[in-house]
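hey can u check if this looks right to u? its 354 residues, i copy pasted from the old doc so theres a chance i mangled smth
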Amino acid sequence: MLRAIAANAVLIAHLTVVELKYSHGHAILPGWVGHGGAAGVNLFFVISGFVMALVARNANWRDFIGARVIRIYPIYWFYTSLVLVVFVIRPDLVNQSFAHPPSILQSYLLWPQDVDPLLAVGWTLIHEMYFYVVIAVFVGLAIPLRYGLPAWLVMVLAAPFLIDVSSPLFAVIFHPMTLEFILGGAVGLVVTAGAARFGATSLCAGVALLAGGWWLYGRGPQISDDRWARVVYLGIAFVPIVYGVVALELNRKLPVQRWATRLGDASYSTYLSHVLTLSLLGRIFVSQPIHNAFAELVFVILCVAIANAVGLLSFDHLELRVLRQLRSYIRHGGTTAALSTKPFSKLPACKRLK
C-alpha cells in the first residue's frame, strides 16, 4: 500500500509539469503538490531498504544479486527502448531539458553519468542498483547488517568532508538519499528482531513530521544542497511511517485493501511507464477544443486513472511474465526473488513474529 502511495505521489508530481505544459493556463494542481509529490522517491528508498533487510536474511550473494537484476533490468530495458525509438525518430521530443543527450549504453546499464538516463526516472534505479551491490557485498563477506549499515551510514555522512564527491560515480555512492535506504534497512532489522510495538504512535509521529517538513521545505532554515534538504525535511519522516505501518499490520490493526495492494504490486511498472503515459495524454488533451477548469479536472482524474491502469496491465502482462520466465532459469531464485511481490504479512520473518 505504501508503494502505491509512493508511485502515485511521483505520478502527481510529474502531472503538475504536464499540466503547465498542456493546460493553456487552466492548470488546477498547485506547485506545492508537485513539490511534495516528489517525496514519493524518498518513501520508495525507505521501503526498499526495509524490504532488502528481509530479503538478505539467510540469502547467498549470488541469489540475492541475481534476483535484484532480473527484478530491475528487463522491464526497465523495455521502457527505455520505447524512449530510444522516440529519440531516434524525434529527438526533440525526448529529454529537452538535458544539457546534452545521455549515453545510451550507460542508460541501459544504469551506470552514473552527468545527466539522467534516457528514461529519466531511471536515475533512482541507478541508486537502487548501488544499494543492492552494497548489500550483496555484506552478504558475500558475511558482514551482519547490524554492523554493515551503521558503517555505511558513517561513510556517507563523512565523505563530503574528506573527498570530492562531485563526479557522477561518487555523487551516487555518497548521495544523501542513501541514508533513507540505510534507515529503512534499520527498520527491517528492528522488525525482524521482534519489535513491532507502538505502531499507531510511530505512524502519527511520522505523519506529523512529514507535514511539518513539507511546510518547512523551502520556508525553514535554508540547506544549500537540495539533496540534503529533501532528506532532512521529507525523507526522515518516512522512517517512522514505514515502521508504524508495518507494526500495525503485524498486530493486525491495519485494514489492508486489496485494490491498494494491487496498485502497490504494480508500482514499479507504473513508475517506469507513467511519464510516457502522461506525455501521450497531454498531447491528446492539448489538441482538444475545450480548455477550462472543468476540462482540466477531468484531464487530471483521467491521467491518474489511466496511468495506474497502464501500470497494472504492464505488471500483469509484462513484468510478472518476464519475472517468472527468468526466475525459472535461476537456481533457488524463486525463494528470494518472490519476496518482493508477496504481501508483507506472508514474509517468513513476519510469520515468525505472528
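Residues 332-343 have pLDDT under 50 and may be disordered.
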